[in-house]
Automatic annotation (TrEMBL):
Region (Disordered): 1-35
Protein name as annotated: F-box/LRR protein, putative
Comp. bias regions, Polar residues: 1-21
Organism: Medicago truncatula (Barrel medic)
Gene (UniProt): 25484347
The organism's place on the tree of life at top rank: Eukaryota
InterPro entries in the record: F-box-like_dom_sf, F-box_dom, F-box_LRR-repeat, LRR_dom_sf
Pfam families: F-box
Amino acid sequence: MQHSINAAASQSSRGGDTAESSDTKKGKKRGSYNCGRCGLPKKGHNCNIKTPVSTTTTTTTPVDSSLSIVSVPSAVSVIRQPPSNLRRALSFDGLDDRGSGLDLLRLDDKAYGDGDGDGDGDGDGDLLDLELDLEPDLDVEIDSSGLPGNLRWDVLRRLPPAGLLSAAKVCKGWRETARKLWKATEELKLRVPVKVHVGFVASMLQKCPGILRLSLRMESDFDSTMLACIAFSCPNLESMEISVFDTATNRINGDELGRFVADKRNLKTLKMEGCSNLGGFVLSSSSLSTLWLSDLHSLSKMVFNCPQLREISLEFSCQENASTDLITMIEGLGRSCLKLQNIHIASMRLSHAAVLALTAAQLRGLRMLSLVLGSELTDASVAAIASSYPNLELLDLSGSGISDSGIGMICNVFPETLKRLLLALCPNVTSSGIQFATAQLPLLELMDCGMTICDPNFPDPTTVENNGKSLKTSSANLQHINQKLIIKHSRLKKLSLWGCTGLDALYLNCPELNDLNLNSCRNLHSERLLLQCPTLENVHASGCQDLLVEAIQSQVTKSGPQCFSCYR
């Protein structure tokens, strides 16, 4: 979908061609005023596009405090692989985001309509935009186009970066308004294509001297040059998020990251993907409160001198030769980050000893704990957690070895606090344990039991998600055949049973349930399904029988929601 600025450029181009033919009749030889490759005005324009392909731009329809922008032109229009959209263990807004990723091309098409890419027309949740502070005082002088200053502001702030740069060349009034727009920017979100040089990013950042929040989605490599550019151009940076596509590599090492964090005294949030080249790091900051690092591998040292740190997420690569000492790392967190409230650690090297190190830290403010892929975590680990942190609101032990006994401990300790319980890929958990949890935890709003009740006769859905390597399962799965699940809960809003191939009967009475994930529940029979969920809006049924999908649609339609979606 072409943005309006491109449409205008095309019209100008057609106008130029008309003028050309007219001038030819008069004996003058005058070419088009617009570039033949990208359609932008030729004056002051140095085109980097070698072939005449259309560029994809993203637009939003912002409210008074935001300006829509962003995707920089790419020379080649190809299908790009999205970032590795990590499981957001500390903000479970969508259960199925873990494997879906972000389709940029489809997002670009949707975003022109409502600004957030979700196609709902509400304009919320903008993924690519540039936010501004309060609208400055603008003169009411009428420019050559007949627009007063405040109207120019309202029009130009809706343009993408390339359009805003072009608009600044129209006249003095437009140039001044564009300058004020850049200067008022507080948040910038950019996609950086493969062939875009660091100089382009530098020029964008230098136009926004007051930028506080920066988000880059890198299709090209992210290296020390880019990091230095950010450090120089954004002196007051408070938040930085780096997403890395499959086509790119994050080349930052631990020393470079440590210097950046130490120099940025206002930095409060740092989220970075693809951190496989860190090697080791020492992070010292008196302001950092949120830290997310993913794809970590074989770190020689991890030191956190961040007294204000409240949320940390560390995702380690699933390589067998990893050698990171998690116990020492957790002990260090306990000594220097006493204000931690949310902890997420995903590593196959998680062990009961690591849990004991965490419980010894006595983090009194801890409210969310996520220890994922630790197959060596057992019911004893649950007992240690329950005895040290009785006020947890979220507990994620997905991929662990806990059993129904561990669930019983959870229900005994957290009945008045726990709202989110995630036990996906726990092969020792049965339908009885799941039913007991929903009966004993009255505040529960989200529960994920994916791949717990599995029939060994069906292929493992996780083999595709883990590059063909199946996650370890227990022999207890042999007993997880033809099980039924009955859940009655007054507050449950999201339930995930993805990959429960051993489940053949499901009865739900959940008046607040709005999202149900039944992906790959291949053995679930339509005649053994009963959904008494009047507010159910989304059902995910990919890989299910056709009769089951029809039964879901029939039962949910009768329940009465006006807006219902069944994803296959």
